[in-house]
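**User:** Once you have settled down, spend some time on the protein underneath, comparing sequence with structure tokens, and judge whether sequence predicts the tokens.
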Amino acid sequence: MNLLIIIGAILGALGMGFFVGSLLFKKSGQDKEAAAASKAAILLKEAESKAEILKRDKLLEAKEKFHQLKADHENLINEREKNMQAAENRAKQKEVQLTQKVEQVGKKEKDLDAVRLQLTTQLEGMEKKKEELARAHQMHVEQLEKISGLSVEDAKNQMIEALKDEAKTEALSHIKIITEEARLTANMEAKKIVIQTIQRVATEHAVENAVTIFNIENDDVKGRIIGREGRNIRALEAATGIEIIVDDTPEAIILSGFDPVRREIARLALHQLVMDGRIHPARVEEVVAKVKKQLEDEIVEVGKRTTIDLGIHGLAPELIRMVGRMKYRSSYGQNLLMHSRETANLCATMAAELGLNVKLAKRAGLLHDIGKVPDDQPELPHAILGMNLALKHKEHPDVCNAIGAHHDEIEMTSLISPIVQVCDAISGSRPGARREVVEQYIKRLKDLEALALSYPGVEKSYAIQAGRELRVIVASEKLTDQQSEILSFDISQKIQSEMTYPGQVKVTVIRETRAVNYAK
């Protein structure tokens, strides 16, 4: 019972506390609301004041921007007005200048009219004077015709004919004297220059044959070179293109062939094979290929040494190689490289005597026969082929013309061309230069002359310049000029088809009429 009373008291106290707390809570909430409302009113006033300040600032900025735009617009208008005023001033100035020019042109036109009038008056006066002079001249001519009994045209013709005859007589006399003097002087000078040139140039000559002798130490090597059933020698012949003759000649093997380069390749290849001791078909092909490469290098080296010895610079590498290949070419036993070197020295000496370009002459002399050693064999004369090669490698035009014209294939356009032609003939046709049996040489010249004499109308024929030219004299009453041209062509074609000769043969047919009388 006491416990219940205690519990009831506690619960009553608790209820009182809750009531008092609720009353206190309500009072504190009302105070907070009042404070919040007051704070909100303050914030609102502050916001309104800030908005008012911001509004005033924006209005001020807008006014300033408006004033700035207005000022800029006014400046732009002022600038445009200034430009328009300047343009208007320039236009006025140009107008003034044009007005002045128009006034000047007007003055000049007036002056020209005055000059034109004056000239017209003078021309009229001159025409009158001219008419008066013509009448006076006509009167004089009529008087002269009456006195002389000849018309003006007749007198003029007689005077012209007399002057012509007198001038012809004097001219022929002078021409004859000058021609005789020039002929004597030219012959003497030419002979002097040629003799001095030949005397000053001395060149060794190499004689080439169609065979090469390969010496061996003993005859036992021959068996190894031939090989089993001849396979080694067949492989060597197939690789080099040279006929290898192994006979009873002691300690020697003969290499036969008309190509000196191939013979040299075969000789060098045999030398290496014999020294090495290993001789079989595969080794033969390997050695021949290696020797070919070595020989090409040697050819280039020979070309370089030749140009250095002669003092010729700036030659294209391909032309240097062709100069080196000349060492292994020959014409009637005369080595082509030695012939070209001798021709170059002769050209240089002769050009120096004549006061011409020595370097160009020497260059043309060295290159004049490069058409004989091309890589291919086109159907062209060697002079034309050599000229084309020189043109391809941009040689001097005078050098190209000298190469192409040294056998009269083209027309000569420089003084170096005849020098090269003469020096080529000197080097190739003088005694000892080319190997030819004397009996064969004389027989060839006689055959040339007999061939020309076999044609009707031919009176005489002469083989000159060591058989390089055939001069045929025909009877003028039997052949016309046109028939003489046909005869020259026929003889050249017959020589080409029936005879063997070095280089080329120039056929010259001479037809002339002579009138001879005697004063007794």
Residues 417 and 429 are 18 Å apart (CA to CA). The chain has a mean pLDDT of 79. The chain has 14 helices and eight strands.
